[in-house]
Amino acid sequence: MLRDLPGIREHAQTMKVMAVKSPVWSGLADYYAGRACMLEGNWRGAATYLHKAVTFQDSAGLFGVLRFLKLDQVELLANQGSVDEAFALVSEAINDQELPHLWSPSLRQRADLLVRSNADISTIEEAYRAAIECARGQKARYYELQATTHFGRWLKSQGRAAEAQTRLSEIYGWFNEGWDTPELKEAKALLDELAGLSGSPRRSNKSRRDH
User: Fold this and answer.
1) What is the distance between the alpha carbons of residues 24 and 207, in angstroms, rounded to a whole number?
2) What does the pLDDT read at residue 67?
3) What's the mean per-residue pLDDT of the chain?
4) Are 141 and 181 in contact (CB under 8 A)?
5) Domain boundaries, the chain
6) Which helix H or strand E contains 51, and what residues bound it?
7) For residue 101, what is the DSSP state?
8) Contact call for residues 46 and 77 (beta carbons, < 8 A)
9) Rounded CA gap, 105 and 125, in Å?
10) What is the predicted pLDDT for the residue at 69?
11) What pLDDT score does 113 carry?
12) What is the CATH number of domain 99-207?
């Protein structure tokens, strides 16, 4: 979740070693190797590793892991241009009653896919709002920040920088740690861009609420 490339590589290697004696770990070793490839932008390598991971988890009956892998498969398919397949897979994840904690990121992925598909504005906006409300209802602040950042980036592209800044500032201001994580860095970078476009100053870290 933190997109720590060195850490993911380390996990992949560790599980590869563990799999020599306990083959059950080989699926996760391939999964982490695939995640590393995705972070590097090596989509062909990612596809190879994730396919191996899915095949293994399916044959071993590890369906919980398979459900979690859907998020990465959706991202992979989207970046390979297979948007229709990505839509189908993300719909499965959204309708999966077994993993409610994945509903918000799945809804956010669906909104991102709608942007890629040039859907109408009202449909895209409704999709992002659904992802944000889902995360808010589950008190999943990380996913709320992620969805709001993506929504804010889209609002900026629509010439709605002031609205994007207001929305993103609210959730960003909730955090009081983790400034070196990718999600918070991306949110801050976008807030700085939005402040420049709207001409309004950003609050400093000191003025954030302490929750």
Assistant:
1) 49
2) 76
3) 90
4) no
5) 99-207
6) helix 43-60
7) G
8) no
9) 15
10) 86
11) 97
12) 1.25.40
Task: Tell me the C-alpha distance between 108 and 152, whole Å.
Answer: 12
The rounded distance, in Å, linking the Cα atoms of 14 and 75 is 25
Residue with tokens 């040039």, as numbered in its chain: 118
**Nearest CA to 168 among 159, 155, 182?**
155
Indicate the Cα dihedral angle 24, 27, 29, 32, nearest 10°: -140
The gap between the terminal CA atoms of the chain, to the nearest Å, is 22
Within 8 A by CB and 6+ apart from 138, the residues are 100, 101, 103, 104
Residue ranges in the chain whose pLDDT is less than 70: 198-211
Query: What pLDDT does residue 199 have?
Result: 65
145-149, Cβ contacts within 8 angstroms, sequence gap of 24 or more: 145/171, 145/172, 145/175, 145/183, 145/184, 145/187, 146/105, 146/108, 146/183, 147/104, 147/105, 147/107, 147/108, 147/111, 148/187, 149/183, 149/186, 149/187, 149/190
At 201 the pLDDT is 56
Q: 10 Å Cβ neighbour count for 12?
A: 20
> Of the candidates 202, 179, 176, 175, which has an alpha carbon nearest to the alpha carbon of residue 191?
202
Residues 6+ apart with CB under 8 A from 119: none
Structure tokens given for 91: 């719909």
DSSP 175-209: --S-TTSHHHHHHHHHHHHHHHHHTPPPPPGGGS-
How high is the pLDDT of residue 206? 39
Distance (Å, whole) CA 51 – CA 33: 11
